[in-house]
Amino acid sequence: MKKRGVSAAAGGWLPALALIGIMGLSGICVAQPSESEVLVALADKGVAPSLKQAATASRGLAEAVRQLCAQKDAAHLERARAAWQEAFLAWRRAEPFQFGIGKGGKQDRSIDEWPVNAIVLDQVAATKDFAHLRESKDIRGFSGAEYLLFVPADATAATAAERCPHLQDIADEIAGRNARLYRQWQEEDSRRFVAAGDGEPFLMPEDAFAPVFARMLNVTERLLRDRITIPSGSDEIAAKPEALEAWRSALTRDAIRATIAGLRLALVGDGRTGITGLVAVRDGLVSQKNPQLAGAIAHQLDRIDKRLDDLGGGRTLYEALTSKTTVLKPLYDDIETLQKQIVEASLTLEVDVRMPGEL
């Protein structure tokens, strides 16, 4: 699979579905959204509930692990596995909203490093002799917790030796970092975000869209580079199916779908007060409104969801990739198109945003 750069020209726009959210069925125009309205909707309907759900689910994971290590039975192992799945998917849905404004509000990759270093983790989990390696990022976070929960055949194996102390430490860290992200938003970033135009850090309402677009481009770039190209291989690197995220829990497809759901919420929202609703009706100093682009973005998100449904022919993405390394290329192409559309939307709204490589 050959990696390609981001282009500002998306091209090939489809008919404007976005106009449905702006025009009544009778053809009478409803009030057009302002930048401030869209920021408030993004904060109240996107950022806050997404970060809250991630914090709640990760707290549930920490508690489920605590119960597993106390009871050490099959029922509690299954509950801990289910709690991990819920927490990971909530984290992935919240990805587009982890842009933060103040210090501590941005995503911390230390709990989302993939793939896990299984060789080192096996040693750390087996004996205290390797306790000094417990802080290594490649044996912690969601990848470390998945390995410790889903590889063992039963609860006895899952809680043997030093597995519980390390697993509990990981789960508590995941919960703590998600709690801090949500608290930072609630106590500081939210007020500054929705008040954009009243002063620092955003002199104009449209300035507040810069971190949002930067984050969305970062998320799509990570999907393309880390989550598709590295496992699939390219002209420069060999395929590494084991680098797929969450393949041991068979959750790779759902994890990508969760990230796309977060992007949909960030971009489309409820339609009228989403970013695409603004793209459809707002003229800038130089650029003009682009309802065709607004509709194309919604269509592309649907296309990616459909692609995820069809990929693999009933097999997990890991199983499909091990038999055919090009199986994810159509998904790569679809997400790259979405990334180009996000760039085009930023140009339409005249948002000063850096590209993924500069983030």
Describe the protein.
- The longest helix has 37 residues.
- 58% of the residues lie in helices and 0% in strands.
- The protein has twelve helices and no strands.
- The two termini are 24 Å apart.
- The N terminus and C terminus are likely disordered.
- With 359 residues, the protein is an all-alpha fold.
Features:
mainly alpha; 2 domains; 58% helix
Question: Summed up, what is this model?
Answer:
The chain is mainly α.
Task: Present the secondary structure layout.
Layout: H1 35-71, H2 74-94, H3 118-126, H4 141-150, H5 155-158, H6 163-194, H7 209-232, H8 252-267, H9 275-281, H10 291-310, H11 317-323, H12 329-348
The biggest beta sheet is recorded as: none
Shape: globular
Low-confidence spans: pLDDT under 50, at least 5 residues? 2-29, 355-359
Count up the helices.
12
Structural class: mainly alpha
Mean pLDDT: 89
Count of distinct structural domains: 2
Query: What percent strand?
Result: under 5%
Question: What string, H for helix and E for strand, traces the elements in order?
Answer: HHHHHHHHHHHH
Q: Rg to the nearest angstrom?
A: 21 Å
Q: Count of DSSP E strands?
A: 0
Tell me roughly what share of residues is in helical segments.
55-70%
Distance from N terminus to C terminus (CA atoms, Å) equals 24 Å
